Hints:
alpha+beta, 2 domains
Amino acid sequence: MTTNLNNILKTQVDIFGCGSRSKNIYYTQSLNYFLTKLAEKNKTTVFKLRELNKTDEKIAKQYKKDNLIACTVSATFDQYRLLNYIKERTGLIAIDIDKDKNPELDTAKAKQEIIKLPYVAWIQLSCRGEGIWCLIPYNKENNFRDTWNSLREDFLNLGYVIDDCKDETRLRFVSWDDNIFAKKEVEVYDKVKPFEYIMRDRDYNADDWELTKDDIKDITVAIYLLTHYCGYSADDYNDWLLEGFRLATMPNKEVGLRLFKMISEASANYEGDYDVEEKFDECCRTTTYRTNILGYYINKIKEFYGLEWRIKANELLGQNIIA
Length: 323
């Protein structure tokens, strides 16, 4: 099955504001409007971001959060940018290829190689100018994350590591590129690569202190459901700090930081990854938390979502929220 660029650009997307307003939908407009008129309007801001990024990455990240508008390419939402508030899936997925995961990335060369893929419709520089992103139409009857997982493998075979794009809530920040690559006709991507992890049907004993690899997966699933489906957040500073102390007890600190970022991003006071990383490092050095966090988060998801949480978890666990 094929589609054309005109139809893709007519797709309606939700536009989101900057900073603390990034959780609020401003309005819904065509993707073409976001990629052209809004890009032109924000051109100066994008260029300033790229200049800042050359000298201070922390300041650049905060500037991006505070000043760049964004859209959700993959879905429109009803009021909140949460998965259970999806109004309509667009059948589009935005793939990022960043320099941090591809240190030798040559953006000009990458554009020329990737545009040859029959399902890539659009490629341009990302907002910070160091990486690229590409737009791909996919069969929206397929599972989103199984589609992403298949694309991850395809791009890896081409020599590129794509950024994590776990679900349809992901924001695409406005950008500018004088040399956009696009195709009039493209294939609709129709491959999937399912994940195999299945949520175990078992009880969770708060007295069991040692966490196994499967326990860590279950904590991840619970926090993902809480933040993406239940509106769970830690808006109060003391509550946020306590989340950091809990997750600092994880035996895998990288996973603990990832989950702390997940909770932090859901907070109304979220100020960027640098602050989260700095606070988590402090929590790891000072935590005195001594309650089993597996039992805590499982009980929390039962409280928020109800006894049907396992069913929802198994629907989602073909999806790479734990990679």
